[in-house]
Amino acid sequence: MNKKRKSIIESNQVSELLTLNLGGYEQKVLVDGKSADLPVVITLHGGPGTPIPFSVGCRGLFPEFTDKFIMVYWDQLGCGINNRKIDESFKISTFVKMTSDLIDCIKEKFPDNKLLLFSTSWGSVLSALVSAEKPDMIDGIVASGQIIKNVFFNDEVMGALEASAVPRKKLEIIKNAKPETANPNELQTINSCLTKYTDAYNNKNCKKAPMGKIIMGLMTSPDYSFIDFKAVVDNGYKGNVSLWHDILKIDLTEALNAVKMPYYIIQGETDIVASTNVVKELVDNSANKNLSCIVVKNTGHFPGVEMMDAVFENLCKLS
Q: N or C: which end of the chain has fewer CB within 10 A?
């Protein structure tokens, strides 16, 4: 760990690794912030099972955020520091319960602070659903890559893949896949083809986030062992299909239309994974003034520099 990061950690009034019972499972959660009176931001990462960019290994790594907020970093059960096998008994509702418990624990620790959520991709499923359970505790939500419905299995995805250079054999696998029976190989084929042959995930004109810096930061984290670092990508979600079957049949239209706190959705212009067109249609047609959508140009599903700037700006608005 370098001197600059060590100095940031030492200057943060709030910097603590907590052990909390979330959904019946003991889990480690990091809280990190310049002072104890700042608004709290609970981060809900994507995947499922991909605690990037914000994870428990990030102590002192993002001073631009921790100078303004108390950041709550949670490696969701099954990855990172909380790695364990996620078997087929796990459902979306399991993780909503953990998220709800986390909000209770953090609110108990910081009862007078504003409490915000920042979610991305899979995490946006959790933020949408938990918003109905905790309307009096959550002061606002910023979600990037908001999932609503028809993930992967929609005309936008199929049209983009058919218009790309996807090999014919892989395209046939994708065409024959069905959301109700999709297996890990089929899902991985869709995912890898969208990544390689389209701008759905990474727009080629997007200014990329400094992943090398983040990875090095996790490797030198005071809270991560090498096993925890490895479990950022190689973890207990491997082979799980129960969560994906839940995601593929979900429709969060009703939940989002009912949100009772400001809910800012930040979408990449070329995101067809969590379709930006679907998000814009929902927000445009909704009578709920709490919902808004910001589209970031030259960006796909994965947040780049411009999207993270928009996230930070909108979290500041809510604070």
A: N
How far, CA to CA in Å, does 231 sit from each of 85, 130, 214? 11, 26, 15
Q: Are 147 and 122 in contact (CB under 8 A)?
A: yes
Where are the alpha helices (H) located in the chain, listed in sequence order? 3-11, 63-66, 92-109, 122-133, 155-162, 168-176, 184-197, 211-219, 226-230, 242-248, 253-257, 276-285, 305-318
| 16 contacts 9 by C-beta, under 8 angstroms | no
The predicted structure's pLDDT at residue 291: 97
Whole-angstrom Cα distance, residue 193 to residue 206?
19
* Residue 30 clears pLDDT 80, i.e. is over it: yes
Q: How far is CA 288 from CA 115, 253, 256, 257, 284, in A?
A: 21, 12, 9, 6, 10
Q: What is the 3-state secondary structure (H, E, C) of 25-45?
A: EEEEEEEEECCCCCCEEEEEC
Q: What is the mean pLDDT of residues 259-282?
A: 97
For residue 303, cis peptide bond before it (omega within 30 degrees of 0): no
Give the Cα separation of 256 and 259 in Å (integer).
5
CA atoms within 13 A on the CB side of 36: 7
